[in-house]
Amino acid sequence: MLLCRYDDRLGLVRNDDVLDVTPALETLPSYHYPLPPVDPLIAHLPALRAAIEAEAKKAKPVPLKSVKLFSPVANPGKVMAAPVNYKKHLEEGRSDPGINFNRQVQEIRQAGCFLKATSSVVGPSEGVAVRHPDRRTDHEIELAAIIGKRADRVPVERALEHIAGYCIGLDITVRGPEERSLRKSIDSYTVLGPWLVTADALPDPGNLNLTLKVNGETRQQANTRDLILNIAELIAFASSYYTLMPGDVLLTGTPEGVGPIKAGDVMTATIEQIGSMEVPVRAADPPRG
Q1: Measured in whole angstroms, how far is the alpha carbon of residue 19 from the centre of its chain?
Q2: What is the pLDDT of residues 22-70, one digit of tens each?
Q3: What's the pTM value of the predicted model, to 2 decimals?
Q4: Cα distance between residue 273 and residue 22, in whole Å
Q5: Would you say the C-alpha torsion 164, 169, 171, 172 has a positive or negative sign?
Q6: N or C: where does the chain have the smaller number of CB atoms within 10 Å of the terminal CB?
Q7: How many domains does the structure of the chain reveal?
Q8: Domain check: are 51 and 93 in the same one?
């Protein structure tokens, strides 16, 4: 099942069309303050699947190219990210002063995960707004795993049971001496899309080709089998520090080939068995209030 958020609607993607299944959300429970620390759609997705399929049978297909795609996860409780989780990216990070700023780049087992602000999350149609054009801003393509059920110190062998699905993630990065979580939490610097592929439709996340192009030029190309810590190991590792909740996002690391982007560029990110998304880059709007 491929689920997308478009034009403030919920859609089921089939071929090159989207089917409006928004009425299925009417079966979601109503919430009162304080709100739960989960994304309601992701938390109740197993129970909603029958209603989604029923609505799809009644829906009129709309061409995907005609809609505005938002992040498939509307309300992530937290966005976790795995730094330097590909060996060749670790090597380029250690050798490029434009990346390391004369600091030792540690591999993920020493560096651990870091958190990104949820306010940085956007969909592909919203694009990336460069906030510090005077500094190097890099693209990073990653497989994103969406947590589907509560995970607290889960063992590796059961970790994949806690995944609702997968999507493409772009972890946009301002280079500099500051902490990762600051430089990567800028508005629009976490792009998720183009849709959520449910876990049952992608049984082997450990063997997926990734490609990122900028203005048609291939910059990054790798396979998730090259991850230092695989998806299950990352979930076990992250859940040993904090409880993972439905709707939480885990960015699993970027391969070698990271490079600068600027306003006017167009990134095309593709992950095998998920799809492809075009993400425009623009200058950030002037400050408000």
Answers
A1: 23
A2: 999 999 998 889 999 999 999 999 999 999 999 999 999 999 999 999 9
A3: 0.94
A4: 24
A5: negative
A6: C
A7: 2
A8: no
**Structure tokens that stand for 13 in this block:** 């993607």
Q: How many residues does the chain have?
A: 289
Q: Who contacts 110 (Cβ-Cβ below 8 Å, separation ≥6)?
A: none
Whether the pLDDT of residue 89 is over 90: the answer is no
The answer to whether residue 288 is domain-embedded is no
List 116's β-bridge partners, or say none: 79
Residue with tokens 């062998």: 157
Can you tell me the distance from the alpha carbon of 241 to that of 222, in angstroms, rounded to the nearest whole number? 29
Q: Indicate the residue type of 217.
A: E
DSSP 58-84: HPPPEEGGGS-EE-S-S--S-EEE-SS
Give the CATH number, domain containing residue 127.
3.90.850.10
If asked whether residues 123 and 218 sit together in one domain, one would say: yes
Range of the domain at 270: 79-283
207 domain residue, yes or no? yes
230 pLDDT tier (thresholds 50, 70, 90): very high
Consecutive H or E run containing 144: strand 141-147
Q: What is the DSSP letter of 227?
A: B
Helix locations, the chain, DSSP H? 40-43, 45-58, 87-95, 97-100, 108-111, 180-183, 231-239
Tell me the HSE value of 91 on the side-chain side, using a 13 A CA sphere.
7
Query: If you compute the radius of gyration of the chain from its CA atoms, what whole number of angstroms results?
Result: 18
| Unique residue bearing structure tokens 């009162």 | 32
Cα–Cα distance, 190 to 129 (Å, whole number): 11
Coil, helix or strand at residue 199: helix
**Domain end call among 70, 93, 108:** 70
CA distance 139 to 210: 13
Q: Which residue in 50, 22, 34, 3 sits closest to 148, CA to CA? A: 3
Residue that is last in its domain, among 33, 49, 70 = 70
Of 238, 237, 261, 258, the closest CA to residue 248 belongs to 238
